Amino acid sequence: MDNKEAYNNWAFTYDTAENKTRDIEATALKNIFEHSDFKNILEIGCGTGKNTEWLLTKTHNLTGVDFSEAMLNKAKEKIKSGNVTFKKIDIRKEWEFEDNSFDLITCSLILEHIEDMDFVFRQASMKLTKNGLFYIGELHPFKQYLGSKARFETEKGTVVLDCYMHNISDFYKSARKNNLICVELLEWFDDDANANIPRLLTMVFKKI
């Protein structure tokens, strides 16, 4: 089962099954942008709309994209706002948006499935306005080192998705190549237990 088929299957239980990584990432996004507002937001990997509803309180124009039609259908069922447009897009290919058109791009729990991060950072930089922000929230590399991967349960057993290893330095390198600088890096732990390995890494980059 490839990742697209896996996410199409996962869509039916994604919102209801226990998922600490999903929930901590949603909390992290809200904490980071609690006091911010934006003109145009591009949400990469919007999935079932887990972050979309909240992001809509921060803008009057949001575009949510995902490569899973089933995930997008779930998002459309939940969110009826006229301020959001959903599109099926594979971010490994050219992003068909106008350059310099978004002041925030969010990318949630997606890059572990992307081998060529430079391409994604390049596309994000092209589509951001000057001083626009690029947020990423990812399973922490420390968790990946221990073998953690995106996975979900089905009646037939556990489905483990195809993932790529990205070190923290890899994010910096891709950003530097594409006119982006890191303005914030945070690590998020289960139950605020800082003595344990962090579950999530979030980074915010600014286009210069």
Folded structure, characterized:
There is one protein chain. With 208 residues, the chain is of the alpha/beta class. The chain has a single domain, classed as Vaccinia Virus protein VP39 (Rossmann fold). The chain is built from seven helices and nine strands; from the N terminus they run ααβαβαββαβαββαββ. It has helices at residues 3-10, 20-32, 52-55, 69-78, 117-127, 141-145, 168-177; strands at residues 41-44, 62-66, 84-88, 102-108, 128-139, 151-154, 157-160, 180-188, 200-207. A seven-stranded mixed β-sheet has the order 3-2-1-4-5-9-8, with helices on both faces. The longest helix has 13 residues, at 20-32.
The name of the CATH topology is Rossmann fold
Shape: globular
Structural class: alpha/beta
Radius of gyration (CA) equals 16 Å
Mean of all residue-level pLDDT scores: 92
Distance between the termini: 40 Å
Q: What is the total number of structural domains?
A: 1
- What is the CATH superfamily? Vaccinia Virus protein VP39
What's the main sheet like? 7 strands, mixed
CATH class: Alpha Beta
State the main characteristics:
single chain, 208 residues, alpha/beta, Rossmann fold, seven-stranded mixed beta sheet, two-stranded antiparallel ribbon, 9 strands, 28% strand, globular
Short description:
The protein has 208 residues and is α/β, with parallel strands linked by helices. Helix content is 29%, strand content 28%.
Topology summary:
Layout: H1 3-10, H2 20-32, E1 41-44, H3 52-55, E2 62-66, H4 69-78, E3 84-88, E4 102-108, H5 117-127, E5 128-139, H6 141-145, E6 151-154, E7 157-160, H7 168-177, E8 180-188, E9 200-207
Parallel strand pairs: 1-2, 1-4, 2-3, 4-5
Antiparallel strand pairs: 5-9, 6-7, 8-9
Helix pairs in contact: 5-7
